[in-house]
Specification:
Length: 120
Amino acid sequence: MSQREERIELKFRIYDGTDIGHSSYASSMTVATLKKRLLSEWPQAKTVTPKTVNEVKLIHGGRVLENSKTLADSRIMSFGNLPGGVITMHVVVQPTIAKEKKAKNQKDMQKMNSCSCTIL
């Protein structure tokens, strides 16, 4: 007898209140895989569009989900366990800061924090 994999019905609310990705997902799916799928379904007309999985944060129950964990490991469940209920997760886009900009800021900070003495 094969055991049927548990499925979780999810939808994702983005910054402007639009819902995307309404579907049933396997509880064994990792958060990173889920984010990849969301990136492929992201509405192109939006002003804020993530470019990589690392720019997307999924929030459920007040917690940011970790990429390496599965949905089951993240304990995704509806509150009150309503049968047939759809779970809404919030999606936050946080663009990564360019490494060049970060390096420039570090050099500026070193200049500000360094001092020099000149003996005449």
